[in-house]
Design brief:
heterodimer, A: about 290 residues, mainly alpha, B: about 290 residues, about 80% helix, globular
């Protein structure tokens, strides 16, 4: 039924989904969803550079490289918006595309170098959840657990930071440090997930569960739980479906499951769903028609 | 001759994207362009599944449909109260995932492999030729010329209207301009641009060429006309410099073009800062 390795991969993608659901919610509420997208694309040059410098494909080394360039990209976006008259959208777009381009430049150099031999770095663009080794999964478990734990530890402070930054500053919270920790965690989530679902679809895992959870609830606690659950479920279901047939890539299916859940939420959620909205409209009209 | 075609393709990409990018930046729609460049993949795959050819015409149609669909879905989610960045994120990642999945399922045997779509291979451009009116040119050049013509026509026809609906949408709506039609028309030209350029530079790097030169131009321009001129020049410069740099380093041409966009962008920001500072000093000295 379920082979040993598949079980581990299932647990891995589930943890990844939960972690992405939680950090995604925080970045969603700060209206930073697309910054995560840029950071995910920007991980690519880091991975290629780490390999070029060290000549090793050890996961921790590649992850450190990815984390450095992702964080640099986030910093660049902030720098562009504060030092030029460009708006956030243009800053995000240009950083995303340029970093990804530089990533492809280095990746091509790696692939054409004698020690490269396609070196499996290309897997980072689309992920390779199905063929992850025990060792890779170990790292995934470790960092997903750290992400979830730190999110729970900083929960109270972040809540204040998101909904009332002025008050948070007033009572002496280290605002900049908290923001930096949040950014670091988002980058860490991305770096963790890249291996499983790839650079491009990682942003989906950060955005879709959070956007779905927002439809179900307006309370942060509930939102985090729902978002984590949707992320985790997408991870499990997507991995399982893609294991049924060879040739189905895991990343896109995980994203499609999440998108399906978003669509269902969009239709049937009791407060913000389209169906209940429509029914309320009909009821309202009836009230108006009474003599 | 081969090199000539490749450089010409690059220059055309620079011009076409440079023109399309100006209003994208001004309308604060860079991320929608990013979304469209991802979803165009979905449109192209659908076109292939329906027609079973990789004919440029059907690709354009498929991509235009995907682009309009993307813009429409984002609008739909936004109007039902989902914040803009999340709406864009949900729509394009979902459609992109569908596109990638369909490629792995159906189109595995054609040259539509995903990597080619994402990164393009401008070096292969000269091999795929097409003859029309006894003129033999690479297919990519034909496509880019046609799209460039469409873009320029759209601009000449609707320049006033675009300007007004960009800077004062309220007033434009009051005097009865078809804002929605303009929006979708513009989105269609962006989709066309993406498809025409995608064969040579890939779907992701189209974004660099669409947003980069126009954003760089935005920093130093005072008027829209200035912005168009700068944007096109930066686009062409990025393409040409990127090509020769890639040749020198023996690496991906498309990637190097995007990197050049970034270098130019940073150079212009720094230059602008220095100019501003020297102006300040002058004023203080007086």
């Amino acid at each position: 039924m379920i082979s040993g390795n598949l079980l581990w991969v299932l647990i891995g993608t589930m943890l990844l989904g939960v972690a992405a659901g939680i950090t995604g919610t925080f970045s969603f509420l700060q209206k930073q969803s697309l910054v995560g997208d840029a950071a995910a694309h920007a991980a690519l040059p880091g991975i290629a550079l780490a390999f070029l410098f060290t000549g090793q494909k050890e996961l921790p080394i590649l992850m450190i490289g990815a984390a450095i360039t992702s964080a640099l990209a986030v910093y660049c976006i902030q720098w562009i918006t504060s030092y030029s008259k460009l708006k956030a959208d243009a800053a995000i777009g240009i950083v995303l595309a340029v970093f990804f381009g530089v990533g492809i430049v280095f990746l091509t150099i790696v692939n054409r170098s004698p020690l490269g031999n396609q070196s499996g770095l290309n897997d980072f663009i689309f992920g390779k959840a199905a063929t992850m080794t025990k060792n890779d999964l170990m790292w995934l478990f470790l960092s997903a657990t750290i992400i979830i734990a730190v999110s729970l530890l900083c929960y109270k402070e972040w809540k204040l930071l998101i909904f009332d930054p002025v008050y948070a500053k007033g009572i002496g919270l280290p605002i900049e440090a908290l923001k930096a920790i949040l950014t670091a965690l988002i980058v860490m989530t991305i770096v963790t997930g890249i291996q499983a679902v790839g650079v491009i679809l990682m942003s989906a895992l950060l955005i879709i569960p959070a956007a779905s959870a927002k439809l179900w609830s307006k309370k942060l606690t509930t939102m985090l739980i729902v978002s984590g659950a949707i992320g985790g479920l997408s991870g499990i279901a997507g991995t399982f479906i893609s294991s049924l047939r060879t040739g189905l890539s895991t990343g896109p299916i995980i994203v499609l499951v999440a998108a399906g859940m978003f669509f269902i939420s969009y239709l049937v959620s009791p407060q913000a769903g389209q169906i209940s909205k429509y029914r309320r409209k009909v009821q309202f009209r009836r009230l108006g028609d009474r003599p | 001759m081969m090199e000539f075609w490749v450089v010409l393709t690059g220059i055309l990409v620079g011009i076409t994207c440079g023109i399309a990018g100006v209003f994208l930046i001004l309308r604060k729609m860079s991320m929608i362009a990013d979304a469209i460049s991802h979803t165009v993949l979905f449109g192209i795959v659908m076109a292939y599944i329906v027609t079973h050819t990789l004919n440029g015409f059907w690709m354009l149609i498929g991509a235009a449909c995907a682009g309009i669909l993307t813009a429409y879905l984002v609008q739909l989610l936004q109007s039902s109260g989902i914040q803009e960045d999340a709406a864009i994120g949900v729509v394009f990642t979902s459609l992109f995932a569908v596109g990638v999945l369909l490629i792995t399922l159906f189109a595995g045997d054609v040259h539509l492999d995903v990597e080619h779509v994402l990164m393009g291979e401008i070096a292969f451009v000269p091999w795929d030729r097409w003859t029309f009116l006894s003129l033999t040119m690479p297919k990519a050049v034909w496509m880019l010329l046609i799209v460039l013509f469409i873009n320029v026509t759209f601009l000449i026809l609707f320049y006033k209207e675009m300007k007004l609906s960009t800077f004062d949408p309220m007033y434009a709506a009051t005097i009865g301009l078809p804002i929605v039609l303009l929006h979708y028309g513009f989105m269609t030209t962006v989709s066309f641009t993406t498809v025409a350029a995608f064969d040579s530079v890939g779907a992701i790097l189209v974004v660099a060429m669409l947003i980069g030169p126009a954003a760089t131009a935005y920093i130093i321009s005072q008027t829209i006309k200035q912005m168009f001129i700068w944007s096109v020049s930066f686009g062409v410069a990025s393409a040409v410099i990127g090509y020769y740099a890639a040749k020198f380093l023996n690496t991906s041409i498309a990637g190097m073009m995007a990197a050049t966009v970034g270098v130019l962008f940073i150079a212009i920001i720094v230059f602008k800062k220095m100019m501003d500072n020297s102006k300040k000093k002058h004023l203080q000295a007086e």
